[in-house]
Amino acid sequence: MYPKVKPALARAWRDLQTVQFGVTPAHAVVLGPVDTATGSLIDRIDGTRGMELLRADAVALGLPPGQADELVRRLAAAGLIDDATAGGARAQALRRRPEVLERLGPDLGSLSLVRPAPGGDLRGMAARRAIRVQVRGSGRVGAQIAAVLAGAGVGRVDVLDGGRVEAGDVAPGGLGPQSVGRLRAEAAGAVVRAAAPGRAPRAEEGPGAEPGLSLVVVAPRDGLGAWAPDPESASDWIETGTPHLYAGVLEGTGVVGPLVLPGATGCAGCMERERVARDPGWARMLVQWRSAHRRRGSPACDLGLAAAVAGLAAAHALAFLDGELPASTGARWEAALPGLHWESALVGGHPECACGAARAQEGDSTARRETQDTMAG
Description:
This protein is of the alpha/beta class. It has 16 helices and 12 strands.
């Protein structure tokens, strides 16, 4: 073991015997009591020394026998220790790609905070590189989402879209001016390849190594398919249990979510049924909007709002791919120009929708009530 205090957290002494690791409340850890000699030993836990050398350093600093092991255990229990040799075979394979690790250094630092076990950062990144994601749409929002996911280490990002790139599709971080006139899917594929830190695992491992589809991100260019998603377009994902996340900008309003977990959270069909029940005119208007969307001119998609939506959607997608449930799970986040106040609304399962989310949620509620009754009794 070659322990290393995680460098992602800034360190400062709160007082003469207390060290704080980290600035922000979400991940900060306070450790104490810590004397001056122990603080000096912490400085030496940097991944370049094995435990034998750290024990010798502890003795040289005047610390009692066993202090080095005890300190490493304390730091590890607080989620502050990494190990330069941990993470398994796939992590070791990544360590042999220094050019990839250099590109992904900030991402690994972030993963080290949310995956506190030693080697968790490289284990998480190796898992990302085995993942396949599909992005539906390559406009100002979709192309940026695809680029961020590829740049963050997702092994394969496929972009699906039709037609050719127009000048209004161009955005920093997405499709560039040189893409105008090219097939959208082809141009977006080039952006993804340029953003990716090294070859994807399928290219490294040879034919027959194609990963399954882990997530679909729906980011249509005109935004209507994210604001009021068509249940028919999502029917295959519901049937196959494929998670999907909606994101887009429509008429100066950005939306991220819901992240749909088929059979567990509300889907496009649930949303449409709930809206129709609240607004008798909604179904009639929706038919008109969907039939006319191809005839509309340039969408009202402010570049700053598009970047904000793309960034938030990509971050939520990465959180999900890393094994967490982001705030968009079963919820929509919306912000409109000019104030850009992000607000969330829950998306529940509808009892008349065949996706089964309403039944699953009712089962969860019943189980919680039974647990509460048992605890009360």
